[in-house]
Amino acid sequence: MFDLNNIEEKMKKSVSVFEENLSEVRAGRANPAILNKISIEYYGATTPINQVAAVSVPEARMIVIQPWDASCLKDIEKAILASDIGLNPNNDGKVIRLNFPELTEERRKELAKDIRKMAEDARVSVRGVRREGMDLVKELNKKSEITEDERKSNEDSIQKLTDKYIAEIDKLSEVKEKEIMSV
Questions:
Q1: Contacts with 30 (C-beta within 8 Å, 6 or more apart), sequence order
Q2: How many CB atoms lie within 10 A of CB 158?
Q3: Distance of CA 160 to the CA centre of its chain
Q4: Which among 56, 57, 35 has a CA at the least distance from the CA of 47?
Q5: Which long-range contacts (CB under 8 A, 24 or more apart) does 49-54 make?
Q6: Could you tell me which residues are beta bridge partners of residue 56?
Q7: Does an H or E element contain 70, and which?
Q8: The whole model's pTM is what?
Q9: Taking all residues of the chain, what is their mean pLDDT, rounded to a whole number?
């Protein structure tokens, strides 16, 4: 059976994944979201850093990580070094500081290119959901479960949703690019 809400949910999910990926792009400002994918081995379980330490941003270009258990300080430091965030942790024995350097013009352009690629991937994902919906509508019409008018109406609705979510992706991408270029 055809369910427009299901199609919209899938499109929303594509946009939210894109937003999450954008939040992890290092834009020269300290953003704790870049630590989201970094985990450590803590008492036998793989645990995200934000669950074993207080993560704060005392300055625009610094993140401070203060573990609740000082014994995992070295593990956090190793995990950050092993990750692809490109920052060197400063460990003073109590906290870890991550300093964000100024972005060079070349790095800004690289990041903007990465953002455009992520946006295109998100648009492709939304279009994939549209294609699935359109195929379903055509199949239902072929099986005579819906009329030709219902088919056209449903296809129009799917296209409107697609346009809405692609516009949202474009807007998010544009905002993030401006943020990077103006830092």
A1: 57, 59, 60, 61, 62, 63, 98, 100
A2: 23
A3: 24
A4: 35
A5: 49/76, 49/79, 52/76
A6: 64
A7: none
A8: 0.69
A9: 86
Q: What mean pLDDT is predicted for residues 55-60?
A: 84
Sheet holding 53-59, edge to edge: 53-59, 62-67, 96-99, 89-91
The whole-angstrom separation of Cα 166 and Cα 120 is 9
Packed helices 4-23 and 148-182: angle between N→C axes, nearest 10 degrees: 10
Q: What are phi and psi of 167, to 5 degrees?
A: -65, -40
Burial grade of 113 (CB within 10 A; 0-12, 13-18, 19 or more)? exposed
- For residue 106, what are its two tokens? 């070349």
Q: How confident is the model at residue 156 (pLDDT cuts 50, 70, 90)?
A: very high
- Residue 27 is predicted with a pLDDT of 66
Q: Please, are residues 29 and 182 in contact by the beta-carbon 8 Å criterion? A: no
pLDDT tens-digit profile of 74-132?
A: 888 888 888 777 778 888 888 888 887 777 888 788 888 989 999 999 999 999 999 99
Nearest to 174 by CA among 12, 18, 46, 9: 18
Residue count of the chain, please give it.
Answer: 183
As given in the structure block, the two tokens for residue 82 are 């092993």
